[in-house]
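Hi support team,

I've been running sequence recovery on a batch of backbones for a student project. Most finish fine, but this one hangs at about 90% for roughly twenty minutes before it completes. I'm not sure whether the input is malformed or the queue is just slow. I've pasted the structure tokens below so you can try to reproduce it. Let me know if you need the job ID as well.

Thanks,
M.K.
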């Protein structure tokens, strides 16, 4: 019993899919009552005696058309072949099948099967009364009009709705991607700001710390002056610590989405801030030409720095030159912090395909932090400098190597190609412009997609999506199908009218033929001059007219002599045969 109950429950859920909201329930019940109410009088007019069963079947099929549209279509067409009560329902189930059956093979098969069953039962019901070709023709024409044409319209509406929904989802996705791109741009800008603050301001603060450290051990200063210099040095070290904490926060937030190709270049986008900060301290413009200013600043702080150039100088991309500047700046800053007083060698070697920047310093001449006034504070290190340098070099197609030397010193070297791989044109790109290309493409794709879905599409695809495959509107296919159905129906109507006229001619005897036939003429000769007749027109004439002669076999036809015939009357001729000869002919009128 449980298996039967589950199967029944599943069948009901399949045939009557939810969710059943109040409005849907009311609409379905009203529709079922209307369709069932239309079926009953149609069956009464057709004299089939199936008014009540057809009415109930029509109402039930209307309710299940949403869940099992193909089955409902076939059953409705079958019932339409038995009686005409389900013909209004055929419009509804045709619409539902076209809108809900997704597989084209199933949809076409259900329509073909429905028409075949409708025609078969129509032939079985009216065989002998109506010519088979007329039954087939009118069945096909009516089926195309009542079932196929609504199905095409329903399928167009369903495809248009599905396409619009898909494009709306795509639009929402593009909006989300636009927001993500803008977020990426903001994170990359934070990364750029953090890196420039670290490189430029950190270097300046390191020079301040070195200068104050040198003054602190100057024997010409009084104790009060030395104390003031010590406070200044501690303030510089504290500022460096706070700066690196802020830089660390900015960098950590931006590492959630690292910069990639096409984003504001970390190597190039910092020219404005970095160069401005460097220029404030008199250390150059931020490119290869500014390296000499960095060296001079370090020398002014009391640190022996030598600058060596090797090879024929060649032009560098702006991003590569700025990366070289930052490499030297970071190396000098680290040397000032970790090996104060140690001599530093800066080398620029112009190789055939790349510029090699190398900064080397030995170990400090005395333990770091030892001063006449006591131990110096611990060295402040943000841990972001070398990471930023490697990213800068990567964006221009180069590489950075850093590590200790055999003499307990330190070496920082970078290889920078003359033509940067990426980021050469990224200077001055802000967060808005970083998101611009992608965001603009998203907006253009969205607008084009919605216009195309609703109105059939613009004349051309925007450049942002020029490479995307063009898709045709569902209206084109459905319009072609509808036009084909209408042409087919028109052709069937013309063919039906022609067939109707021919059938009427086959049931009509001309007045001249009637007058030429003499009593006593052999039956075979008379029948050769008479038309074949058709039960469609002549079945209601049986038994009409005066009483025929006893034992005679009579045939009746319509007459083309309608003179004096009133409205609702037909002119009829009757020929009676007995013993193989014509024994009587009559011309009379009967009411239709």
């Amino acid at each position: 019993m449980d298996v039967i109950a589950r199967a029944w429950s599943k069948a009901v859920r399949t045939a009557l899919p939810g969710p059943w909201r109040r409005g849907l329930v009311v609409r379905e019940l009203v529709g079922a009552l209307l369709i069932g109410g239309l079926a009953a009088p149609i069956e009464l007019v057709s004299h089939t005696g199936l008014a009540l069963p057809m009415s109930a079947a029509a109402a039930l099929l209307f309710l299940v058309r949403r869940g099992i549209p193909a089955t409902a279509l076939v059953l409705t067409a079958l019932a339409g072949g038995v009686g005409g009560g389900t013909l209004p329902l055929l419009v509804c189930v045709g619409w539902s099948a076209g809108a809900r059956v997704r597989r084209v093979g199933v949809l076409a098969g259900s329509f073909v099967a429905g028409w075949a069953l409708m025609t078969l039962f129509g032939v079985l019901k009216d065989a002998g009364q109506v010519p088979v070709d007329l039954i087939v023709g009118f069945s096909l024409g009516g089926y195309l009009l009542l079932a196929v044409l609504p199905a095409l319209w329903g399928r167009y509406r369903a495809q248009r709705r599905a396409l619009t929904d898909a494009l709306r989802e795509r639009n929402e996705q593009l909006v989300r991607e636009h927001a993500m791109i803008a977020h990426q741009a903001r994170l990359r800008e934070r990364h750029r700001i953090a890196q420039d603050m670290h490189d430029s301001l950190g270097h300046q603060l390191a020079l301040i710390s070195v200068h104050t450290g040198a003054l602190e051990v100057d024997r010409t200063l009084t104790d009060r002056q030395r104390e003031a210099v010590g406070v200044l040095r501690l303030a510089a070290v504290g500022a460096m610590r706070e700066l690196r904490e802020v830089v660390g926060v900015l960098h950590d937030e931006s590492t959630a989405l690292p910069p990639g190709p096409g984003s504001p270049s970390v190597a190039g986008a910092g020219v404005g801030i970095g160069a401005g900060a460097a220029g404030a301290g008199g250390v150059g413009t931020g490119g290869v030409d500014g390296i000499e200013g960095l060296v001079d600043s370090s020398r002014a702080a009391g640190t022996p720095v030598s600058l060596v150039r090797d090879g024929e100088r060649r032009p560098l991309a702006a991003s590569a030159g700025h990366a070289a500047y930052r490499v030297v700046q970071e190396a000098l800053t680290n040397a000032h912090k970790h090996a104060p007083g140690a001599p530093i060698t800066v080398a620029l070697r112009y190789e055939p395909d790349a510029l090699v920047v190398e900064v080397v310093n030995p170990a400090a001449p005395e333990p770091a932090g030892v001063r006449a006034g006591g131990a110096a504070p611990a060295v402040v290190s943000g841990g972001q400098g070398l990471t930023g340098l490697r990213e800068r070099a990567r964006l221009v197609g180069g590489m950075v190597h850093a590590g200790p030397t055999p003499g307990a010193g330190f070496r920082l070297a970078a290889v920078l190609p003359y033509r940067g791989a990426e980021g050469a044109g990224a200077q001055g790109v802000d967060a808005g412009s970083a998101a611009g290309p992608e965001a603009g493409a998203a907006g253009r794709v969205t607008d084009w997609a919605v216009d195309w879905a609703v109105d059939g599409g613009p004349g051309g695809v925007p450049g942002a999506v020029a490479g995307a495959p063009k898709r045709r509107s569902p209206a084109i296919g459905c319009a072609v199908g509808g036009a084909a159905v209408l042409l087919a129906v028109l052709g069937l109507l013309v063919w039906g009218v022609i067939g109707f006229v021919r059938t009427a001619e086959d049931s009509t005897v001309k007045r001249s033929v009637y007058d030429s036939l003499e009593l006593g003429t052999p039956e075979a000769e008379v029948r050769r001059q008479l038309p074949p007749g058709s039960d469609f027109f002549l079945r209601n004439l049986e038994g009409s007219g005066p009483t025929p002669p006893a034992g005679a076999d009579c045939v009746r036809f319509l007459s083309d002599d309608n003179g004096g015939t009133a409205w609702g009357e037909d002119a009829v001729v009757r020929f009676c045969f007995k013993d193989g000869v014509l024994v009587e002919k009559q011309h009379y009128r009967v009411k239709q």
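--
Follow-up from support: It reproduced on our side and the slowdown came from queue contention, not your input. The CA atoms of residues 334 and 511 lie 126 Å apart. No action needed from you.
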